[in-house]
Amino acid sequence: xxxxxxxxxxxxxxxxxxxxxxxxxxxxxxxxxxxxxxxxxxxxxxxxxxxxxxxxxxxxxxxxxxxxxxxxxxxxxxxxxxxxxxxxxxxxxxxxxxxxxxxxxxxxxxxxxxxxxxxxxxxxxxxxxxxxxxxxxxxxxxxxxxxxxxxxxxxxxxxxxxxxxxxxxxxxxxxxxxxxxxxxxxxxxxxxxxxxxxxxxxxxxxxxxxxxxxxxxxxxxxxxxxxxxxxxxxxxxxxxxxxxxxxxxxxxxxxxxxxxxxxxxxxxxxxxxxxxxxxxxxxxxxxxxxxxxxxxxxxxxxxxxxxxxxxxxxxxxxxxxxxxxxxxxxxxxxxxxxxxxxxxxxxxxxxxxxxxxxxxxxxxxxxxxxxxxxxxxxxxxxxxxxxxxxxxxxxxxxxxxxxxxxxxxxxxxxxxxxxxxx
Amino acid sequence: xxxxxxxxxxxxxxxxxxxxxxxxxxxxxxxxxxxxxxxxxxxxxxxxxxxxxxxxxxxxxxxxxxxxxxxxxxxxxxxxxxxxxxxxxxxxxxxxxxxxxxxxxxxxxxxxxxxxxxxxxxx
Lengths: 422, 123
Description:
The complex is a heterodimer of chains A (about 425) and B (about 120).
Chain A: E1 2-11, H1 15-26, E2 31-34, E3 50-52, E4 61-62, H2 63-76, E5 80-82, E6 85-92, E7 98-104, E8 108-119, E9 123-125, H3 128-131, E10 141-143, H4 144-154, E11 161-165, H5 169-180, E12 184-190, H6 199-206, E13 213-215, E14 217-223, E15 230-237, E16 240-241, E17 247-250, E18 253-256, E19 260-262, H7 265-270, E20 294-296, H8 307-325, E21 334-338, E22 342-346, E23 349-350, E24 356-362, E25 369-375, E26 378-385, E27 394-398, E28 413-420
Parallel strand pairs in A: 1-2, 1-8, 2-5, 8-20, 10-18, 11-12, 11-18, 12-13, 21-28
Antiparallel strand pairs in A: 3-4, 6-7, 7-8, 9-19, 14-15, 15-16, 15-17, 21-23, 22-24, 24-27, 25-26, 25-28
Helix pairs in contact in A: 1-2, 1-8, 4-5, 5-6
Chain B: E1 5-11, E2 20-26, E3 29-33, H1 38-49, E4 52-53, E5 56-62, E6 68-73, E7 77-78, H2 82-91, E8 93-95, E9 103-105, E10 115-117
Parallel strand pairs in B: 5-8
Antiparallel strand pairs in B: 1-2, 2-3, 4-7, 5-6, 6-10, 9-10
């Protein structure tokens, strides 16, 4: 068995993993980047639509193009890349060292000893079991991302008459993609009273094709023995299915776009504390988990809606992992908590002496909202927001100036809230 | 007599921010409000006069490792040409190696829009 020693080991070669690895490499640390698939890029490779890169590269790229920019940077670096390689085990050793076992199709079993690990495994799709759709169990029920992979990577078209459950972005993008490969999409069924994908995708993926969007509706039954034959669609009345208004839609394929969950099987195995609000690791101002030297960034930490934010967050994780390797630690951290109308904030701690960025996920849809930052009960920053909705994450910058450095205590708390205005 | 003004609410699709636009047309004159950048103004104007879309799809690639090559138009294409472009894309068989940005179909239907490869595929 081959044994290696490295300063940093990055788990996952998608947008987050590449950005973290590149940052660490640029700081002069040795980095190993582990990727399960046979090439770098992650989910970007199957996201052939455009809209990526406006923040990172100031131009609009497709997923494969965005991935390629990063892959080229990785190639020019000293990063050791291991594709077709799966990390299965992390053991905690003395002096905060970690021992990682990797099964590689090329090198066999590899044993790495590293000082830091950056988790960048991304997320996975929720499926039929997560949303409990009653009915038979025929072929033709797919998660939207799986169908996307089948069409865009493998070259298979999963069906001809399609109904989509959930109005998440992948579902909307797949509605257009299925239309463009000659299938007919009969509708998108969303349980919430508002769409859960980006507004531009409702416009260009549904309106352009006159695909009905059934808000406050559920798929209440799947019909078909060998193959999906139809689904029942039921409107909700006061949040409860109104069975009297159920209608049947013929289809041969049901695509599920019902949310994403950070992929943390490995994290749990190492004993990393997870945040029940995000499904990802609980991290401090360095994006470090409760285990010293283990960092997390990207969709494994919390599900993002823009890949540009994933890259930015992972670059920060790389920077902080580098600082950690040089022995730097924040002297004091201030806790950040979600306030009114906020589902979660990430990270949950900031360093009051530096510039910080906080991501927050709103719980409401509103056109007149004021975002407030409160420090121990006193509002210290107020910002108007023209439009908020749960599918659009908000990113705010927190400047060290807002803190009175002399009176800060260890138990100081920032609360981020969204106040609805009339 | 004053010309009638037609107003349309739309969502800008140029980038993921999705500005909510109010586009009003009085005769030849088009006014766009709600855009946060100049590209939004162009989009609003075009959307009401002659809508265009960037088309992304995949075509067959002959390569040892890959089956599909992602392709895209290098500019937005007038929507009336989208279906014939898709038919054309699905007939293409491109042999590896392919470079990102390589032109696969030039000046489609005299629109000035090219179809280009969306990634590199080595031999």
